[in-house]
Amino acid sequence: MDKFLISSKSLSSRQEERRDINNDCDSSSTMREEPLPKKQKQHRDFNEKWLTDITFKNWISKREQECGMITAYCKVCNCSVNNHKPALVKHMNTTKHLQNISSKSQTTPIQQMLKSKPEDELKKRAELKICAFLAQHNLTFSLMDI
Ligand SMILES: [Zn+2]
């Protein structure tokens, strides 16, 4: 029966050992240098004034990211830029951005290329009138070439 009973002395000594072990662990964990928490990026909101600012308005737009955040977006480079004025200025002075700006200024926009001239509009109206006249009077299409 004695072998099943644990004496109070032995039990208390075991508990003390455990405490010592725990203390050792605690002391070792405090001795270890834990890595410092990484600096979290500060979230800044998009400033609407940038859209009208002379330095940015030619290339900046705002775009909603997949996570729902609204960030500054460079229309020339097709890339997003941090919502921070120094970051915008830094992007504006990168060689990539400057090259893209210069190449954009040399190209003509497609809307301007597709614009019809006033003479073309007059030709279209004349052709439409001839077609309508032929259809209205049930004339042959061969008359159109005359
Ligand atoms: Zn850019």
Question: Would you give an account of this structure?
Answer:
With 146 residues, the chain is mostly helical. It has a domain at 48-108. The protein contains five helices and three strands; from the N terminus they run H-E-E-E-H-H-H-H. Strands 1-2-3 form a three-stranded antiparallel β-sheet. Strand 2 and strand 3 form a beta hairpin. The longest helix is centred in the N-terminal third of the chain and has 24 residues, at 8-31. It is elongated. The termini are far apart. Mean pLDDT is 79; it is low at 15-30. Zinc ion binds next to helix 3. Residues 59, 74, 76-77, 91, 97, 100 line the site of zinc ion (ZN).
Bound molecules: zinc ion
What would the principal axes of the Cα set say about the shape? elongated
Unreliable segments (pLDDT under 50, ≥5 consecutive)? Answer: 15-30
N to C succession of SSEs = HEEEHHHH
Strand order of the largest sheet: 1-2-3
By oligomeric state, this entry counts as: single chain
**Measured distance between first and last alpha carbons:** 129 Å
State the helical fraction. 40-55%
Rg value: 39 Å
What is the count of β-strands?
Answer: 3
| Strand fraction | 5-15%
- Please identify the structural class as seen in this structure: mainly alpha
* Biggest sheet descriptor: 3 strands, antiparallel
Mean pLDDT: 79
Distinct helical segment count: 5
Biased composition (Basic and acidic residues): 31-44
Region (Disordered): 1-44
